[in-house]
Amino acid sequence: MGQRVWIKRAMMLALVASVAACAREGRQVSVEDTTSPAQIIAMADAEVERGRFARAGDLFLEVERLYPYTVEAEFAVIQAAKSYQSGEKRIESRAAAQRYIDFYPAGEFAALAHYLVALSYYDQIVDVQRDQENTFQALQSLRIVLERFPDSEYAALAAPKFTTALNQLAGKEMDVGRYYLQRGQFAAAIGRFNVVVNDYGETPHRPEALHRLVEAYLSLGLVGEATRAGALLAADYPESSWNAAAQSLLATGRQPNAGAGLFGQVFRR
């Protein structure tokens, strides 16, 4: 960033501090076409301090409306996204953050903008019995943060959320797979469990997915495939209770405590 830009930003911040002091004293200033960017930003900051985040976001966007393509506009758009996120206005936050990405793809706040887009989806993740579109979108957006901005503070924040979202999607696959298994739709169940094993890496669902593959393959009389799934389970998770159940199933055709669980017994054909 050039020296003139830094000087301009410093002047803007000084004006913001001055106008913010007036705002804190309760003196309201309406936004007009002649209101300076510093004044508008100060008004928005005062709304943030009062906890009126949606109003703050609206005010920040006034800077871009009145002074597009300026340093102040770039700053204000990302502040609008942050304010909306703080006020749980996730759609508005996503729209402002995406606007920043569209207009300032290499801007100073690009990593934050991508993270806010991801957060707007992540905060709407629901339980695995429901549609996981938000989870998928969060995962894709978090991946961008991790891959494009690996050294940023937002990558560190994104990493655990990425793992959570990945586990959530794997959990959805398991939920659907169990549904098919319970209803005897074994081929469909195998497809879901294989996705968990092969596409989702080391999630907490992987041991169970391997065990369910043993169940489903045996139900179809595919002993070789069941044995291979059981061998992988034994190699990767030897101490897992899922492994113990799978080995019992392979040896006897019955699981420990057969009949107690949802899939208590699988008959060889």
Global shape? elongated
* Percent helix: over 70%
Number of domains: 3
Reported by name, the CATH topology of the largest domain is Serine Threonine Protein Phosphatase 5, Tetratricopeptide repeat
Q: What's the story with the biggest beta sheet?
A: none
Structure description:
There is one protein chain. α1 (about 5-25) packs across α2. The protein is mainly α and about 270 residues long. It has helices at about 5-25, 35-50, 55-65, 70-85, 90-105, 110-120, 135-150, 155-180, 185-200, 205-220, 225-235, 240-250. It is about 70% helix and about 0% strand.
Task: Offer a concise description of the structure.
The protein has 269 residues and is mainly α. The protein has helices spanning 3-24, 37-49, 53-66, 71-86, 90-103, 110-122, 133-148, 153-182, 186-199, 206-219, 223-236, 241-252. The chain folds into 3 domains: 1-108, Serine Threonine Protein Phosphatase 5, Tetratricopeptide repeat; 117-170, no CATH class; 184-252, Tetratricopeptide repeat domain (Serine Threonine Protein Phosphatase 5, Tetratricopeptide repeat, Alpha Horseshoe).
